[in-house]
């Protein structure tokens, strides 16, 4: 089975050792659980019992726990063609039914593969929330791919998003606290952003940083709401032979302002591919400023130590801050 990525040894239940299709390089959301406690939410034995009881036709398949699952879910391979995703906390549990409901609708129109819900699991044996079974999408993430052409990737991703934004958003899930305001108003993070700038004022030009933030935080989406992925990041883009083939993890899906989807222009793309991305989507200045503010806010709170993070995330956040400020000064 093709691997996406994961570092470190596997702890196996049954046979096989493969990595989950997503390597989350930066995840800066507020958490109700710390890294140590996450392992206690669900374990391989409980996962196997739940599958045996609720999906007996798949009970014979090996379950392989993923070494790096990210914050939102504990994830396991179920055989070679499926994965199990168990929310790691109550704040993430609402994502399950949302994806179960809306992913089939979205997949019917989108030009790239997205996850297909194959089963909805129920709580049991001490595990408290609904959980999902999805198809496995082979490939590697853009985060670790050595074959990725960023200009082509920017064009292909923009094409995917342009189709998403044209789909009928009627009755789609609203933005709010439950999805960390993705698709909503970036100004809800005003206090965090300004506080982070103050903490970092010895290492950055705080006046420029405040200007960048204000340009984004003082504007709003004035068009009809559109579908918003909510977590467009290199770890959620699946490549095959260097070409973008799938977009995964729609847990923060909403309808509203698409600006948060554009943060990748600074967290991953360089100056040239950033221009390709913006031109392909024809993003107006005000929306572009909000997209940059989303990228800036995340990087600021990590660098300022206001969010749980590790050394890798810290280093990447500092790189994003430099990228944002350089781009601002040059444009």
**Radius of gyration of CA atoms, rounded to a whole number:** 20 Å
Task: Supply the CATH class of the largest domain.
Answer: Alpha Beta
The mean pLDDT is 87
Give the strand order of the largest sheet, numbering strands 1, 2, ... along the chain. Answer: 1-2-3-5-4
| Silhouette | globular
User: In this structure, how is the largest beta sheet organized?
Assistant: 5 strands, antiparallel
Describe it for me?
With 331 residues, the protein is of the alpha+beta class. Helices cover 38% and strands 13% of the residues. It has helices at 35-38, 44-54, 90-107, 150-166, 190-199, 206-217, 264-267, 271-281, 285-303, 311-330; strands at residues 63-65, 73-78, 82-87, 117-121, 131-135, 140-141, 226-228, 237-240, 243-247, 254-256. The strands form 3 sheets. The protein has a 5-stranded antiparallel beta sheet with strand order 1-2-3-5-4, sandwiched between helices. Strands 6-8-9 form a 3-stranded antiparallel beta sheet, with helices on one face. It has a two-stranded antiparallel sheet with strand order 7-10. The longest helix is centred in the C-terminal third of the chain and has 20 residues, at 311-330. The radius of gyration is 20 Å and the shape is globular.
What does this entry show, briefly?
The protein has 331 residues and is an alpha+beta fold.
Describe the protein's topology:
Layout: H1 35-38, H2 44-54, E1 63-65, E2 73-78, E3 82-87, H3 90-107, E4 117-121, E5 131-135, E6 140-141, H4 150-166, H5 190-199, H6 206-217, E7 226-228, E8 237-240, E9 243-247, E10 254-256, H7 264-267, H8 271-281, H9 285-303, H10 311-330
Antiparallel strand pairs: 1-2, 2-3, 3-5, 4-5, 6-8, 7-10, 8-9
Helix pairs in contact: 4-8, 5-6, 5-9, 6-9, 9-10
């Amino acid at each position: 089975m093709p691997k996406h990525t994961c570092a470190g040894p596997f702890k196996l239940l049954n046979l096989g050792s493969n990595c989950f299709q997503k390597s989350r390089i930066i995840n800066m959301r507020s958490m109700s659980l710390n890294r140590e406690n996450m392992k206690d939410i669900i374990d391989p034995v409980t996962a196997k019992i739940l599958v045996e009881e609720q999906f007996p036709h798949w009970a014979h398949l090996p379950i392989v726990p993923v070494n790096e699952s990210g914050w939102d879910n504990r994830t396991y391979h179920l055989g070679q063609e499926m994965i199990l995703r168990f929310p790691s906390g109550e704040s993430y549990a609402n994502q399950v039914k949302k994806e179960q409901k809306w992913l089939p609708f979205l997949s019917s129109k989108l030009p790239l593969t997205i996850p297909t819900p194959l089963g909805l699991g129920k709580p049991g044996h001490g595990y408290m929330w609904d959980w999902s079974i999805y198809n496995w999408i082979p490939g590697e993430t853009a985060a670790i791919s050595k074959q990725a052409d960023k200009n082509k990737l920017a064009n292909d991703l923009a094409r995917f998003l342009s189709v998403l934004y044209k789909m009928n958003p009627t009755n789609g899930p609203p933005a709010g606290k439950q999805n960390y305001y993705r698709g909503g108003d970036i100004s809800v993070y005003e206090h965090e952003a300004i506080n982070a700038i103050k903490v970092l004022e010895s290492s950055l030009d705080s006046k420029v940083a405040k200007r960048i933030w204000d340009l984004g935080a003082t504007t709003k989406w004035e068009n009809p709401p559109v579908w918003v992925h909510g977590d467009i990041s290199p770890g959620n883009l699946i490549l095959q032979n260097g070409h973008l083939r799938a977009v995964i993890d729609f847990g923060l899906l909403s309808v509203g302002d698409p600006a948060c989807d554009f943060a990748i222009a600074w967290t991953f793309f360089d100056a040239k591919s950033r221009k390709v991305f913006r031109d392909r989507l024809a993003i107006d200045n005000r929306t572009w400023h909000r997209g940059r503010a989303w990228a800036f806010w995340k990087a600021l709170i990590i660098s300022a130590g206001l969010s749980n993070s590790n050394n890798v995330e810290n280093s990447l956040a500092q790189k994003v801050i430099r990228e944002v400020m350089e781009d601002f000064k040059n444009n």
